[in-house]
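Exercise 7b. Backbone tokens:
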């Protein structure tokens, strides 16, 4: 099992980077296996010997617990976390199970039981909201206590600390069916330094969003430069907007006996200009799938379509941004030369060599599009498999060449949905020489990534 995890990225063929950039050694791989196995059995813990049955909620995972000693059924529902939402939300629904317990010859129901909900260290008191059956609960400073009392079933039988960061929200009461406890906690970006006191590693930091470890899709790059790690993280780490999620596309051709994808394969290198290619159909959850996915960036004055469909993009003027390389774009180098990926900042102000006009496929197929260079009308993105996998800009010399079946086929691409997609928790982080797409480690499959970044140097 450890060897399987060791095959996960970042790149196992680069042992030094594998060690320094936060990847798993065999020891940590074994620990990771054990940790994952505890996700199902370490959500709830019971405390014995107290005045009333006490339950601790340690993990926020949607689940249902039949708590026999507390004589209730507890249903936990966590709302999906998004990088566009500044709060983490969880709801607990309580239902009486007295009849079930009595069938198992348990003692008669006690008058009350205690529910202790963990308040994690990654949140803050400011902006935290707790309610019980819709009634707001005051959030005191750490160390203070508060009491909420009401008639009969709603009575809280003892004072309890409502919110202490790193502690618990504690509620003791006689529960009834359909009682609702809602908790909304602030969630945000933070960094943690690597656990290594050697000076040469003092700048290595991981980026987290609440409890989620974020990693950057990369081939080993880690330099984020002189960024502020104490304040202002939101100035240079930005959530991926909703409209970006609907503009991811892949472009394919049926050529040389198979389906080929327009790809910036291995285009993650720093300071390198990489030629675009037509690559074999990639497996999902791999570098190849990410590098065969592009975001359409519209440069004309029209509003972006809600979804990037073929019909809606015909006639639009666009940039092609690689999925795994935010702020980089595809550009041409002139007639007869290959297409490359270049940093956005290097593009001229008028963007002439990176702007393409989407037109109906020259082959006349209802599912294809062609990309015409905006700077040189009549010149099209072109791939001829006979000449290899390279993708270039071709300007036909005459009408015969322009109207030939071979040219029209080679300049037409099937328009489809992107092979990769943004996780609900997705950010772009600006680095020194490139930007990084940050997503939760748990969302990746076989992509390579960076865990620890050089920040503040």
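Sequence design result:
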């Amino acid at each position: 099992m450890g060897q399987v995890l060791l095959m996960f990225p970042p790149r196992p063929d680069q042992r030094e980077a594998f060690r320094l950039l936060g990847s798993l050694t065999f020891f940590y791989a074994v620990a990771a296996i054990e940790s994952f196995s505890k996700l199902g059995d370490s959500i709830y813990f019971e405390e014995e010997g107290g005045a009333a049955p006490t339950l601790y909620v340690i993990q926020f995972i949607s689940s249902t617990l039949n708590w026999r000693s507390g004589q209730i059924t507890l249903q936990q529902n966590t709302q999906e976390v998004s990088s566009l939402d500044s709060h983490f939300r969880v709801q607990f629904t309580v239902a009486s199970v007295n009849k079930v317990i009595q069938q198992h010859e348990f003692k008669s129901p006690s008058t009350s039981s205690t529910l202790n909900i963990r308040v994690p260290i990654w949140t803050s008191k400011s902006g935290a909201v707790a309610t019980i059956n819709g009634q707001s609960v005051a959030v005191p400073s750490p160390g203070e206590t508060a009491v909420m009392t009401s008639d009969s079933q709603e009575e809280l039988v003892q004072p309890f600390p409502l919110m202490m960061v790193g502690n618990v929200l504690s509620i003791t009461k006689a529960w009834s069916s359909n009682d609702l406890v809602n908790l909304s906690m602030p969630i945000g970006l933070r960094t943690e330094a690597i656990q290594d006191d050697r000076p040469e590693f003092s700048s290595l930091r991981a980026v987290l969003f609440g409890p989620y470890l974020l990693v950057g899709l990369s081939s080993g790059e880690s330099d984020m430069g002189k960024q502020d790690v104490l304040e202002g993280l939101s100035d240079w780490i930005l959530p991926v907007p909703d409209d970006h999620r609907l503009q991811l596309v892949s472009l394919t051709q049926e050529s040389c006996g198979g389906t080929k994808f327009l790809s910036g394969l291995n285009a993650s290198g720093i300071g390198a200009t990489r030629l675009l290619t037509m690559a074999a159909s990639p497996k999902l959850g791999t570098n190849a799938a990410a590098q065969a996915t592009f975001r359409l960036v519209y440069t004309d004055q029209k509003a972006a379509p809600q979804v990037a469909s073929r019909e809606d993009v015909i006639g639009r003027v666009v940039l092609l941004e690689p999925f795994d390389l935010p702020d980089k774009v595809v550009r041409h180098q002139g007639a007869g030369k290959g297409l490359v990926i270049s940093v956005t900042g290097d593009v001229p102000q008028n963007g002439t060599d990176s702007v393409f006009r989407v037109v109906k496929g020259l082959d006349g197929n209802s599912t294809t599009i062609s990309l015409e260079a905006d700077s040189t009308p009549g010149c099209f993105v072109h791939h001829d498999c006979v000449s290899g996998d390279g993708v270039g800009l071709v300007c036909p010399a005459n009408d015969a060449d322009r109207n030939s079946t071979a040219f029209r086929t080679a300049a037409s691409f099937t328009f489809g949905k992107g092979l990769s997609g943004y996780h609900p928790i997705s950010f772009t982080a600006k680095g020194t020489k490139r930007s990084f797409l940050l997503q939760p480690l748990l969302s990746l499959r076989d992509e390579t990534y960076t865990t620890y970044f050089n920040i503040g140097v």
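Instructor comment: The two ends are 37 Å apart (CA to CA). The first strand starts at residue 44 and ends at 47.
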